[in-house]
Amino acid sequence: NRRVTVLVNDSETDYSVNAGLLWRPSSLFSFGAVYRSGPEFDSYRMTVPGAALSNSSSDFTDFTFKVPDSYGAAISFRPTSALTLSFDIVQIEYSDLMENFEAWLGGAAAEDFDISDGTEYHGGVEYIFMVKSKPLALRAGAYLNPEHQMRYNGDDAFLKLNFPEGD
After folding, report:
1. pLDDT tens-digit profile of 111-157?
2. To the nearest 10°, the Cα dihedral for 96, 100, 101, 104?
């Protein structure tokens, strides 16, 4: 009951810009900011219908895939020479994935799909201690990964099952 097989040319290359700033107003605090522009890839896909759509024919389509841009800010606190605490926030523009988006499944329209931008929160701690004359760093961290899957908002039950609302 396969509906479709899609083959994508993934040999394209492109440039991206990454920029960051670091400011250390004192030995206790440092602040940072970062920006990354996601590249765009001009490519093509071949869509081959499966048995469930046997009345359709194969199709070649040119398309552009936009990698999401992201930007963020961070703060680091170093109360002692051995202990560092850090926190940062990163905004990821997942909606960039919808740029030039074309729906090709079961006659769905591009406006039936959606994806939300996400904000990641990262936190970490580092403790450095000396083992003989060598420094050894212990590090731990955690982050929250926001829901960032594509959702289908139309009426097709198959597409609702495969592109559900996320959490």
Report:
1. 888 999 999 999 999 999 999 999 999 999 999 988 888 898 888 88
2. -170
